[in-house]
Structure formats: structure tokens, C-alpha cells
Specification:
Chains A, B: It comes from Paenirhodobacter ferrireducens. Two copies of one chain form a homodimer. With about 400 residues, chain A is an alpha/beta fold. Helix content of chain A is about 45%, strand content about 15%.
Chain lengths: ~400, ~400
């Protein structure tokens, strides 16, 4: 007897994430890991959380914070988000905001909302592998989101139709994307919106890293650009996914979605059916901590992470062989590395762990078709500058031993 | 432009829950509400939570409790659950346990795990409407779980095949089921397991209310019975869903699933893709509070809720007209009421809110086909004995005015 015979066909697309499996191997202290994608816990606003939690479990408050709450989310938190979105050029009301268990849950719900099997999702090549994981449960076909490519919307739509569905959305991270660290300029943002209009599809804007800009000039989110075009969020096709995981702390699992009311309304029903609500206490303390110190805390993170980014870029410059190239992000948590053609990031990782005890994520995991094996992702948020330089020197030695020049 | 045109076909089955919509109307203090299904917040173990949270955000702990954690859940909590399951006759290991965001999320994941569109789910008639809501997203057909009925497994399987799929699971709550409060006896439990063997399907055992027994003798969970039959959880088709929502507090959203390893393994992948993990801090404090006081706290709840149940039963006895009947539960949070044939619980609720300010849930919401309109569900966990008696008297006056005899 095995229940696995009873599993739905959608489970065929659910594979273990290479990153999550990798993270389990990295618990040895002598390893220098650039593999994670996680914030430095030493930078959590711990004392503010401690104060907020003490208030949340006081005799006056606990009857509410430990109790069930509405599926759409805690109103003061939704109000804080409305104020935050306004600073990004996005005018909305609490009815446009759904609180989710991190922005990962928003991606799951958006797959569930839009994708019938064989529908097409346009994604970056590479893209966030957690987005692929979330969408895979709904059995989409993937096509390449690349407004600058030769293939125009007509061809993309025709291919989607030939595959038995239609294009439902484009998914992207416009700022310091995971895994590349690359930011879309204004023309690229406009081009995505133009293409979305032509294809009549939704745009899912994953803004997980947006607040973490360390240099250069910020571009408005796609949703802000679309509101400026159309005058009203209710007329917009962009769905904005935000997260407190990279700015305050990930362990409370609090994120949000901003979109037109019919989209939020349907997602509230979905959330009610899927987990009732995001944990009440987590929303209450997040609202209080955000209210107290969001801006100054993010300013501190920018300074610390920005220095780590510069340290890693400088170290790569000093130690990498000629045939290796990398991105120069202005924010986020990642640098994306290209090895010479024919090299294999996964094999290099095996060698790196075995010989020099340095870790990273092989890049092919971030491609919907598993291609581009000669890439890798480096995280700089978890290590101080000295460790970064030591780790990059280790990586250079691994490359040298592997004959990468 | 409307994105609703792009929604997946599964959204057609996602409707607003009558209960959740109702709860929004009940914020007026003069209403006596038997509509909710929620624990009394005055009984939350607030001080234990306060102590556990203070420890969880201490300088030593916060780097872990506010950080990402493994998708399968916090190991000390899974270990506590292993010990708890042993007291129910269920031998398992932490690898058999997945922590979910409440048992509602377990139901969503189990729908996702098993149901291809047109597959059949066997459910009680009535059943927990949140289970129907969770499963609906995966477009099942429903058939009636009733091992004592004339239709045998062969007929049920043939009907499922004719509908274009196969039977995938039976869903049930064996103890003090929502909405009826009824408990299955040993023979009924055995009969479900027999039928599951014949049909070769999974059994989803929703144990949300299991710990809340106020009188009578406990029967073993179906999973315990199946383990006794087969000698090993790994050979079992029963999947046990537990929750801390009714015993400790619902606002932290912590529940669990116990099943054979291949099921848990697939669900861990699903959780990783859908929301990464249940909030770390919530798991840590739940583990500590459960460790400290679970048994004594549940003993106190049994005493308080048991007295409320007896008060409501006595009050119904005193005030209900002859044509009305109801269940006599031995635990849980609900009593199920039958009005005379031809009466309509929804219309009675309208009248009850308008005239006597007393609320309940019309029973048809709990039937997959919306039938049995002459039923209603009464909750007794949220009101003290005096309020219960006053509310039942109000209800009796509403019935009298409606001509119910």
C-alpha cells in the first residue's frame, strides 16, 4: 500500500529546492557560505520586537492577539502599508491590501488565482526559483520574459495558445532581482507594461528586495508607473508583492499584496479557505515595529549590507580569473557570476565544499529549463567584510584547481 | 480592463464562507452569538505565552526565532507532538510530523496533494465547511461518507469513475465533529477503515476538537486503530491533522499533520513552495507552552466548556418547542439542531438578528450540496452559562414568532 499512487498529477512538478537541500549541509562552522539568501540575524530589530511582543501578550491585548482575526489582515498593519506604498508613488486603500504569510505565500496564491494547467507564465531567465516552485503546483508552461528580445507579443501569445492555454501573467522582480542582483531601468519597466497591455495579462511585481538600495537612483515600481499612466489602481494590471522578511525579520512570516479590489477580494476568499489568516500576533507586532522604526532600521541595513556588497565586488575584482564575469548590483543580497562556457556550477560547488569549504548556489536552478549551468549566485548579506574576502579567495583557489582561467 | 477574466477556472468554486461573513455582523455587544466556532479568549494561557515570548525574543534566542527555519517545522515542537501522539496510541517519529499554519492549512495541502479535478472526496453530510472550502480549490466532486448506507464501495467507486476521476480520500472528524458535535463509535471507525481499504483511498482524520472531551469514554483515533491493525504507521492510509487552536490559542496559527513519511515528505515540498515554513517564533513559543502546561490547561478547558455544554443542553430542554431536536455531544464546541421539515435556518437567522438579537449558523452551509436547510449550528464555547440560557430563550421566542412548534 502506498498513498503516493493517489497523489494528484500536480505533485509531479514539486521537486526539492536545491537551495533548501544545500542549506542543510552548511551547518558546519568552518564553511564560508555565500549560498543562503537570508538576512543577518545580528541586525534584527530585536529590542523593538521584544517591546511589541510584551505589549501584545499583556492582559489587555492577548485576548485579541492570540485569537482568530479577519482573513484580509490586521487593519493597522494594512494602514501602515498604505502609507508606505504612498511613499513609492502607489495610492491605495486598506481594501487594496491583503496580508500574507510572507511574499512566498503571495506567489502561491497568485499561481492558484491565475494558472490553469498549460497556461503560460512569463518569467525571467533566470528568475527566483521559489517563484517557479510556487507556480509549478498549478502546472504552468513557462516562456521567457524579455521585452527586448526578437520575439514579439504576437509570437508569445501564439506559442501559448499552441501549448493549450494562454499567457496569464509576467512575473518579475524589478529591483536587485534574486538571483542576478540586476535592476530594470525605466525603459525596461515601461516595456513590460506595454507588453502586458498588448497581451492583456497580469504583471506580478515581486518587490522583496526593493527597500535594500545601497547606491544609485531608485526607479518607481511598475505599479506606480502604471498608476501614473492610468490614474487609478483599480484600472491597473500590476499586482505588487511586498515582504517584511528582508527589512524587519523573516521568522514572523509577514508579507503583503497590493492590487485592484477584485483581485484582493478573490485572494481573501482563497486565504480564508487555505489557512484562515496570517497569525494575528505576528501582524500586530510587525505593525508596531514598522511604525516605530522602519525607515531608520532600513537606513542602517543599507549601510551595513552596502559595505558588504562593495567588499564582495572589490574582492571579486582582486581574485577572480579573467574568464569569470559578474553583475554589479546597486542593492539586494546577491551577485551573479558567469563562468566560462562549458563550466558547471554544480560540479564546482561539489569541489568547493570538498576542498576549500566555501559554498554558493549553482545558477541553473534559477532557469525554468535548468539551462545555463555555467552560472552561480553569491550572497553577501550574511558575512562580514573579512569573511567575504576570505571566502572569495577560497572560491578563486577552487576555480584555479578546476582549471578555470 | 479586468483581471477577473484571467482567473483560473478553480476560482469558480471559491465562495465567501457564510460563517466568516456572519462574524463581521456580530460586533454589536447586544447580540448573543452562538454563531462563532472560536475558543473563549479569557481562557488563553496568556501568562505562559508571555513568558515564552519573552524568552523567544531574548538576545540569545532572537537570532533563531526571528530567522528562517526548516519547512518541516521546529524540531522540539515536532518532538512534543510525537510524545502527545503516543498518548493517543499513535507511535511516530519527528519525520512523520509536519507543522502547518493551523489545521486549516493541512486541509488545503491535502486537497492539493490528492485531488485532480473531477476526483471524488468522501465527506460527511454535513461536514466542516472549512474543509469543503479548502478542497474546493482543487475542484473535487463530493460523495457522501456514510459506511452504514446502502451504497457500498463498489457503487461509490463506479460513480466516481463515471464522474471522470476516482475516489481519493475520505475526510472526517471522529470526535465532536463540527458542526454536529457527534462522535463516531468504535464500529463506525472500523467501518471507515474497512471501506478505505476496499476503495484503496486515504483517510483524512481532522482531530481539531479531539482533546475537548467533557464526558463519556474516549475512542482511539482512526490512525491509532489502523496502526494497531497493521503494526506500523508507515503502512497506514490515515493522515491525522491536529491543531493547537482549540487547546492553546488560534491566533498563532500552529497545527500539525502526522502521516507516513512519503506523505509528509511530499507535503514538506509543498509547504516549502507555498509559504516556506510556519512562523518560527510561533512554533517555539507553542512548544514551550505545550511542554509547560498542555495537560493541566486542557483539563481546565474541559471543566469550563463542559459546564457550558451542559447549560446549553439543559436550556434547550427547557425552552425548545416539541418539533425541534438536537444532538447531545460529549465534547467539542457545537450542538446541532434540527427544525421541523420545511423550515429554513437562514430565514430564521434573519429574523433572529432583526428581532431578538441572537445568532447561530444556518446548517445548510455544512452540506456539500447546500441541502438540509432546516438545520442550524449552536456554539457554546464563547458564552457563560447565564448568557447561554438568555440566548436560548431568545431563540425560543424567535421560533415561536416564526410559528415553529
Amino acid at each position: 500500500m502506498s498513498l503516493t499512487n493517489l497523489f494528484a498529477t500536480r505533485t509531479e512538478g514539486m521537486k526539492a529546492s536545491e537551495i533548501r537541500e544545500l542549506l542543510k549541509l552548511l551547518d558546519q562552522p568552518e564553511i564560508i557560505s555565500f549560498a543562503g539568501g537570508i538576512p543577518d540575524p545580528a541586525l534584527f530589530p530585536r529590542e523593538a520586537f521584544a517591546r511589541a511582543m510584551a505589549r501584545a501578550v499583556s492582559a489587555e491585548a492577548a485576548g485579541t492577539t492570540l485569537q482568530y482575526a479577519p482573513s484580509e489582515g490586521y487593519l493597522p498593519l494594512r494602514r501602515w502599508i498604505v502609507g508606505y506604498m504612498a511613499t513609492l508613488g502607489i495610492a491605495c486603500t486598506p481594501e487594496n491590501v491583503l496580508i500574507t504569510a510572507g511574499s512566498q505565500q503571495a506567489l502561491d496564491y497568485l499561481g492558484k488565482l491565475f494558472v490553469d494547467p498549460s497556461d503560460t507564465a512569463l518569467v525571467g531567465w533566470p528568475t527566483y526559483l521559489g517563484a517557479l516552485g510556487a507556480f509549478n503546483a498549478y502546472q504552468p508552461r513557462y516562456d521567457r520574459l524579455d521585452p527586448a528580445a526578437n520575439r514579439g507579443p504576437a509570437e508569445i501569445a501564439a506559442d501559448a495558445e499552441a501549448a493549450g492555454g494562454r499567457v496569464k501573467f509576467a512575473y518579475l522582480s524589478a529591483d536587485f532581482a534574486n538571483p542576478t542582483g540586476v535592476t530594470m531601468d525605466l525603459a525596461e519597466r515601461e516595456a513590460v507594461l506595454d507588453m502586458a497591455e498588448t497581451l492583456d495579462i497580469a504583471v506580478i511585481e515581486d518587490a522583496a528586495y526593493q527597500a535594500l538600495r545601497y547606491s544609485g537612483t531608485a526607479y518607481p515600481p511598475l505599479l506606480a508607473i502604471e498608476i501614473a499612466r492610468k490614474g487609478d489602481l483599480e484600472a491597473c494590471r500590476t499586482i505588487y508583492c511586498g515582504s517584511f522578511s528582508k527589512t524587519l525579520a523573516p521568522g514572523l512570516r509577514v508579507g503583503w499584496v497590493v492590487a485592484a479590489k477584485p483581485v484582493i477580494g478573490q485572494m481573501v476568499l482563497m486565504k480564508q479557505a487555505a489557512d484562515l489568516q496570517t497569525a494575528t500576533l505576528n501582524q500586530v507586532v510587525t505593525a508596531e515595529v514598522a511604525e516605530e522604526l522602519f525607515d531608520e532600521h532600513v537606513a542602517m541595513l543599507r549601510k551595513v549590507y552596502g559595505a558588504r556588497l562593495q567588499a564582495m565586488l572589490a574582492s571579486l575584482e582582486r581574485h577572480m580569473p579573467k574568464g569569470v564575469s559578474w553583475t554589479r548590483p546597486e542593492g539586494g543580497m546577491f551577485i551573479w557570476v558567469h563562468l566560462p562556457e562549458g563550466e558547471d556550477g554544480a560540479k564546482l560547488l561539489e569541489r568547493a565544499l570538498a576542498t576549500e569549504k566555501v559554498a554558493f548556489v549553482p545558477g541553473n536552478a534559477f532557469f525554468a529549463d535548468g539551462s545555463n549551468r555555467n552560472t552561480l549566485r553569491l550572497n553577501f548579506s550574511m558575512s562580514d567584510e573579512a569573511t567575504i574576502d576570505a571566502g572569495i579567495q577560497r572560491l578563486a583557489r577552487v576555480m584555479d584547481a578546476a582549471g578555470i582561467r
